[in-house]
TrEMBL record:
Keyword Transmembrane: no
UniProt superkingdom: Bacteria
Pfam families the UniProt entry points to: SPOB_a
InterPro entries tied to this protein: Sig_transdc_His_kin_SpoOB (IPR016120), SPOB_a (IPR039506)
SUPFAM superfamilies, sorted: Sporulation response regulatory protein Spo0B
Domain SpoOB alpha-helical: 6-60
Keywords tagged on the record: Kinase, Phosphoprotein, Transferase
GO molecular function term, any single one: phosphorelay sensor kinase activity
Protein name: Sensor_kinase_SpoOB-type, alpha-helical domain
Organism: Caloramator proteoclasticus DSM 10124
Amino acid sequence: MKDKSNIKWCMNQMRKQRHDFMNYLQVIYGYLQINKPEEALNYIKKINSRMYMLSQLYNLDNSYLSLIINDIINSIERCALEWQLKNLNFYISEEKLSKNINKYIENLNTFKQELYDILRKEFKKQEIYIDAKEIEEGVQILLYNDMEIDLNNNNLNFILISENISLYKENDKKIVMINIQ
């Protein structure tokens, strides 16, 4: 049963990619139909940049982490927000994630809705930086809106969203910490 959930999760990821690819082609086709080749080229450059970042994600040694971050990117894009991957040039043991991946998949819909709600409320029209680090219990994925934010700042206001999601705020600076344990 658990393998079936994993396969379904992977298939949904592939369906989403196919859907996005078809949308990209339709936008380019539309620009060309209305004789705006410069906009089509700019859109292609934007897609190319996004695909480069996704290539970095898919080249991680940890396939579970790649799929989880891909899920998070899908939630970010659902909110019409831009994103960038940061500091993913490290190794996180697949063993740590594989122990609890089924728990993550079982709670995926709840997790995605909680994340979506936070993104819609807290990150209006802001670019989101995505980072990840290994912690003792598993992996922590960080979403933040300011490259200058001090993650060790004790003055950040803490809001517990759920067992695995926390929000830290300081004025306009925000961090969402997602713990995959």
